[in-house]
User: Which sequence fits this backbone?
């Protein structure tokens, strides 16, 4: 696959190795995420997509390689400093606080208390259903509403890079479409950079500016939006591990 046109990277990963004991999950993995674009990491289950996201966030340790955010070394920082540096993270499974209300979930995620009310209104503008459910407990929301809340929580930190791990999982089609449209708006209208892990090819194909395909913990294909339309990319995904 051809490489995408060069652009200033906001996130650069070189030679990343991650695993447990003698088991290697990520193998000399390298990729770069251009600033102000939507990049998708594709691959079948078990190829290392979630491990890559957790490594970027510092949730799992790496054994080799470097991670740089806006040119600065990130791989030596604990997770909370990576968030403070300007990275928002929406994990697989959402991980909202089920016993807190929607508004409390948002407030607790704010890194700028004085601007929390302003930021919450901005989130409600992006996801109007959250305003309607503001007093409802997070655990009482539907899967799609919880996903919107999880994204809203990540946006409360005013990130320059938003990372999402399979946000379409277990979500009804109309909400999937809405989330896709929202992500594109964050990139196109607000200049945010989005790194999205996805296994559903059709969803990714309609969103991505560039893509990487993982197999056995390494990048096996990459390219721009035009290249993503080719049948070869889907073949890599169907090939599995």
Assistant:
């Amino acid at each position: 696959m051809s490489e995408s046109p060069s652009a200033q990277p906001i996130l650069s990963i070189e030679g990343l190795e991650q695993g447990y004991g003698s088991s290697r999950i990520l193998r000399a993995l390298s990729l770069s995420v251009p600033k102000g674009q939507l990049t998708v990491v594709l691959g079948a289950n078990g190829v290392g997509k979630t491990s890559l996201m957790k490594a970027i966030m510092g949730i799992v340790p790496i054994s080799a390689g470097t991670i740089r955010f806006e040119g600065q070394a990130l791989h030596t920082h604990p997770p909370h400093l990576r968030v403070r540096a300007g990275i928002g993270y929406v994990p697989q499974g959402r991980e909202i606080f089920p016993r807190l209300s929607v508004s409390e979930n948002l407030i607790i995620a704010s890194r700028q208390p004085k601007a929390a009310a302003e930021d919450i209104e901005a989130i409600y503008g992006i996801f109007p259903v959250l305003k309607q459910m503001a007093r409802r407990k997070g655990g009482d929301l539907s899967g799609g509403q919880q996903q919107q809340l999880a994204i809203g929580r990540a946006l409360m930190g005013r990130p320059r890079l938003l990372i999402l791990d399979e946000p379409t999982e277990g979500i009804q089609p109309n909400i999937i479409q809405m989330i896709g449209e929202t992500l594109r708006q964050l990139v196109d209208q607000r200049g945010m950079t989005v790194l999205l892990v996805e296994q559903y090819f059709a969803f990714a194909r309609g969103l991505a500016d560039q893509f990487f395909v993982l197999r056995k913990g390494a990048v096996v294909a990459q390219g721009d939006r035009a290249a993503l339309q080719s049948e070869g990319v889907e073949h890599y995904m169907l090939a599995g591990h």
User: Anything to note?
Assistant: The first helix runs from residue 49 to 57. The chain has one domain: 9-238. The chain has ten helices and ten strands. The two ends are 19 Å apart (CA to CA).
